[in-house]
Description:
single chain, 6 strands
Amino acid sequence: xxxWSERGHVLATCDKQFVYCRVVGVGNMNNCAAxxxxxxxxxxxxxxxxxxxxxxxxxxxxxxxxxxxxxxLGDRRTPAHVVVVNANDTIRRxxxxxxxxxxxxVCSEGIALPEIPLQRLQEEQRGRDxxxxxxxxxxxxxxxxxxxxxxxxxxxxxxxxxLAQQDDDNDEESPR
Length: 176
């Protein structure tokens, strides 16, 4: 079995109107930072229409779900329109369990992406930035559905503690 970080990735491209992404394998905390960065760059360039193809997706963890939500929410003033296509029953169930299916359009029928080349997004984020990204993804999930506080509350506390510890460690290493 491949290493967890190699079990999935995201392919992406854009045209004049849409951002297209395909989740391959498992969408997880080890491959969502590049997805988040790419989506943010596209939002900064003015894109508000995202089509996400889940035909090759085997599953998602909560961090990946929070990143999906963050794409839709954007900066809260200008949300994006996110359409999920080709998601199997399990993926649709997962989206519903955490409540983000209310903020995304989830198409039940199969839809093909245009014949345009997709590029694999490469992960680069490590350390404190990665922990902060995971924390924000879970905070977004808790913000949109109070049931998620019970699901992820302990995890949020652990992430906040880890961030605080890293900040303390960085303060000790800084020259005074």
